[in-house]
Design goal:
alpha+beta; 19% strand; elongated
């Protein structure tokens, strides 16, 4: 591969990777969070996203064969940033993150089509690299730094307001009713019916030594673990004597911790309560991660 071919291939990879990186940086953020003033040095996240979309449009004009090149050196500010057109920030406030992401995706795909498979063309190539790779990555760094300080290193009080921990725990207790579980149900489908509204599609579950990625895989993993007990309930060989949450708290990292206990009766019962703990991370009123771990049974 010649130096020019490597340069061209590397830029194409960077352009394609940028689409995914922006989506990941904004994943789970609400419009309200993105409109928060002073979120980054460039203003709100929505302002920054609007600037990214504007820059993508200008870059597309620069590489388009049907449009004249723009004197970009005259458009740039002293810090090398392209100014947003008057009223652009106001317009951005009337758009959702999803809409701006869609616009970005269309523009970035068009830029990739116009640069992929072509020889680098001097100033145009350099401009695309500067705006769509170098400056773009700096902007994503700003968003990620904000997420790190405000979303991961969050306000515990805000997370308590956003989480639906008590509501989810009550739904689990309701599921534990014997007359409900003893029916002929597919557990995975039952979990999906009752709990989809609490869990994000891409949430991660740690259960024992295993990890399941995505809501579908996680519910299947839960169903597999509980299937033997469910079979005993269906056959009338076991019954649920008690099922309850014994303690709940929020740790220093903002995760919600609930301790659980159940006692089974019937032929195969040991007479000992089974105890476990759930540790959940919530974002935008949905569980994004959960760990389920065993707790020692109480001494008789």
């Amino acid at each position: 591969m010649t130096p020019k071919e490597f340069q061209k291939s590397n830029v194409t990879v960077e352009l394609k990777a940028g689409k995914k990186r922006l989506e990941d940086a904004l994943r789970g953020l609400s419009d309200e969070q993105c409109e928060r003033a002073g979120a980054t040095r460039s203003g709100s996240i929505m302002d920054l996203l609007s600037e990214i979309v504007t820059n993508e449009f200008l870059a597309l004009m620069e590489v388009s064969d049907r449009l004249p090149g723009l004197p970009m050196d005259h458009l740039a500010n002293a810090d090398g940033r392209i100014p947003i057109a008057p009223g652009a920030k106001k317009a951005a406030a009337n758009k959702s993150v999803e809409n701006l992401l869609t616009e970005f995706g269309v523009l970035r795909s068009a830029i990739i089509r116009r640069t992929e498979g072509r020889e680098p063309q001097g100033a145009k190539h350099a401009y695309v690299v500067n705006v769509c790779v170098t400056r773009f990555n700096e902007q994503i760094d700003e968003i990620e730094r904000w997420r790190s300080s405000e979303i991961v290193g969050f306000s515990a009080a805000r997370l308590r307001a956003e989480a639906r921990e008590a509501e989810l725990n009550q739904a689990i207790v309701d599921l534990s009713r014997e007359d409900f579980l003893a029916g002929d149900f597919d557990l995975k489908s039952l979990f999906s019916l009752l709990f989809d509204r609490f869990y994000s599609e891409d949430f991660v579950l740690w259960l024992g030594a295993g990890e399941a990625n995505g809501r579908t895989a996680a519910f299947q993993r839960m169903a597999n673990v509980l299937e033997p007990i469910n079979t005993l309930l269906e056959m009338g060989l076991a019954s649920i004597v008690s099922f309850r949450a014994t303690a709940s708290a929020q740790d220093a990292e903002g995760n919600f911790i609930t301790d659980w206990e159940t006692l089974l009766g019937g032929t195969y019962s040991t007479g000992k309560a089974v105890r476990w703990r759930t540790v959940r991370a919530w974002r935008s009123r949905m569980v994004i991660a959960e760990r389920i771990e065993d707790l020692p049974s109480p001494e008789p």
